[in-house]
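Sequence in, structure out. First:
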Amino acid sequence: MFHKVLIANRGEIALRVIRACHELGVRTVAVYSEADRESLHVRFADEEVCIGPPPAKESYLNIPRLIAAAEITGAEAIHPGYGFLAENAEFAEICERSNIVFIGPTPEQIRAMGDKARARRTMQELGVPVIPGSDGVVAELDQALPLARGIGFPVMIKAAAGGGGKGMRVAPDESSFSRLFHMAQSEAQAAVGDPSLYLEKYLVRPRHVEIQVFGDRHGRVVHLGERDCSIQRRHQKLIEEAPSPAVTRELRGAMGEAAVRGGKGIGYQSAGTVEFLLAEDGSFHFMEMNTRIQVEHPVTEVATGFDLVKEQIRVAAGEPLSFPETEIGLRGHVIEFRVNAEDPDRDFAPAPGTIVTFHPPGGPGVRVDTHVYTGYRVPAFYDSLLAKLIVSGNTREEALVRGRHALESFVIEGVPTTIDFLQRILSDDRFVRGDVDTGLVERFVAERAGGERVAAS
């Protein structure tokens, strides 16, 4: 086991990794920008190093400064968390060359799954069901349009090197395709510096269901069930739950077997998530693989009883997976709500500012992962996530009741948050019934806006 780990991240995930390290008896190093000087991850780490000014490119994305911080503190390993450099193959390679263990998969695995078109091709070769689409990257419109006609509209245009919804557009018909193709290209170039695109058939009202996989350095790959992430806005997840209301035991087995086959096919190591779109007819199709710990990993932790972050650290240290050889089942029902510093009434615009009151909920079946406290200043430079509220119960109905009460008693004052919006989603009959898809939130927002206009008139 490592003696010291540097966490190349901030916020709640940095605190989460610090907690896991301390439970393993490992010392921790926090890095922080000047905007995060008063953050809790700095306070609770054993050592801390300031790595630059507030902009992420000058601090949390500055690889030389991160490596230097690890070297001067004697850290043998770096945990990247999620976001920032977590899926950056070059960073993982530089760690290796610097004799620092990157707590995650290998650079080649990150690269293979980071290129979405290549990942799709790889999974197809391994026999994992994929969405009909282009065989590879399409660079020019005159190449893309005939392919789109062959696939059949509506068509999803996606950035090959994208993520988090960047560089994605749905072309409903041929007349809109050219304009949306160029928009996706420009957005992909601006977001990730790579304008490469590929095409997929757009599935109408699918669910987004992902399988949590884990591999070690001894050739073993397992899955820990699914998470339903269909409640999302602009491809950003808002609510996640396990098990999925739409997944039967037989379907879980089929999706899990496909995900494990894909993981074994690339010799995957560490935590990863194989993401599928689940069609209304019960067929499922590979979408992408995230080669990192997910924001919603607590859902699986509560549903299985296993600490995924500690498992990441153990695997990176060369230990075999601690999961049992038998099937890992899901216990009860778990739901996670992402609470962001955003204003839903201003199209979810980020809302930095100072938290003047912070009172998180508690009680049986309630977990809150957060880095926020009264007096904390939410910086304008980073992701707006304030907290993750995770509720669990013996049944979905019990988890829903706990979720309602927990959101009602969650007090954050000083900045707008998504708490009220989450409460409205939780009271929507479609969500209560489990009758959801990836477009539900957009329809919900449009319906609410239409109702307000009618009321105003």
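Second:
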Amino acid sequence: MQQVYVADIDAVIDGTLAEAIRKGELSGRLLIHRAIVDYLYEEAKKGKTAGMAGLEDLSSLLGMSAMDLEIAIVDDEKPSRMKTLSLEDVKKITREYAWRTGATLLTSDPLQAKAAQALGVPVYYTARAGREGKLKIEEFFTSKTMSVHLKEGAPPLAKVGRPGRWTFVSLSSEPLTRRDLEDAAREILEAASRMEDGFIEIDRFGSTIVQLKDYRIVITRPPLSEAWEITVVKPVVKLKLEDYNLPDKLLERLRERAEGILIAGAPGMGKTTFAQALAEYYASQGKIVKTIESPRDMKLPAIVTQYSKNYADLGELHDILLLSRPDYTFYDELRSDEDFQLYVDLRLAGIGMVGVVHATTPIDAIQRFIRRVELGMIPSIIDTVIFIDKGQVEKVLDLSITVKLPTGLKEADLSRPVVEVRDFLTGELEYEIYTFGEQTMVVPVKGRQAKMKQEAVTRLIQKILPEAQVEIRDGTVIVRVPRHTPRLTARRLKRIRKIAEKNGFEARIIPF
């Protein structure tokens, strides 16, 4: 009697069915239910890579009929069933078709295999073992390659070096064709479906994001982009917190006080690498650490749970984190209003939060919160800003709130709540944030304070010697006094030197 197989959709799109045929493991009749074709067509119509690649795989399968294997499309459903099918609908249809016809279900999904066996359906299970050798995209990488950029009609390029210090390198003079990109995309999706450390993170109209081993892969295609493009990013190094040689004062802050942390920096400067090192450090200190990522590309110890915001709405993540009460939650990356709102809600609930945010300067990271929360709440939400540049901690800011007269204002009745932003390591005040009328002001005071001090010293000296010419340069007060002025007495000169020293200047008296 001829052996009859019914193909499950997983075996079609992950390449294990085609591999079994190539190896000559199947003979008889192989039936592919039309529901699989309909599902892949709908996915392809939505612009999803999985659907487009699946149709390509299906076309290839239908051309693989051999002397001892007949492949056919079947359908036992009535036309009235035509509707938008989910993946689970398709799996149920194929499973029940195999049950009704007495065929063997050919699947690579262990859950589908168990469900079929519960119905008494024979199962031919294709293992999800990894393919031997490297993927095509892996051949572009060396130990120093940060990312590879493949685009239809252009030669392949690679970014080589380390964060902040890299160069573009051409990998070939030959431009890539659409077929090259489509083949690479299909191979990536097949690998993601069969590997334990691979998954499709996002599949939208015109774009797909895949996490595959250490690789974060972004695939775009028309109509979203004018041509096919694949960008593959891989961490060059995995650092520990000790590798950053942080000052003891900052380490103590991270260990004992910092609970509302922002890690800021420009794209590609090493923010996520530092966040990964900090998360691993907290985990090693016996803290319960969880992450929210999109995609999940941080490589962390098994004790750290990594959530994807693409597989749950933010309300669900909010409930999970409030109920599980981690010591620290890492949010990589903060982009939308919803992201910032979840960060704020969890922080105000008492959970330690570490957010990763794009910013070209440290103060820019703080300004991302200004329009989203009340000014007085900002120091309760953010207490430490760590700015990363070229893979190193470039600056650390500390936030606090006080009631005072903002720098530069004269009238005492203008006192108001002011958020002070200081350089954490030196304690020097750099910015003041306060409301003036209906507007929120972010005022740099570092240079202004120095200028105000210089103006005050100049006024005091000219009050003692009105005819003096005062210049402050390189930490020195230069006082030029007419040689024969009757006011030039030893007592006045002593007072001038005392004023200069009190304000941190040296005094130099030059008669003329």
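Remark: The first helix runs from residue 9 to 13.
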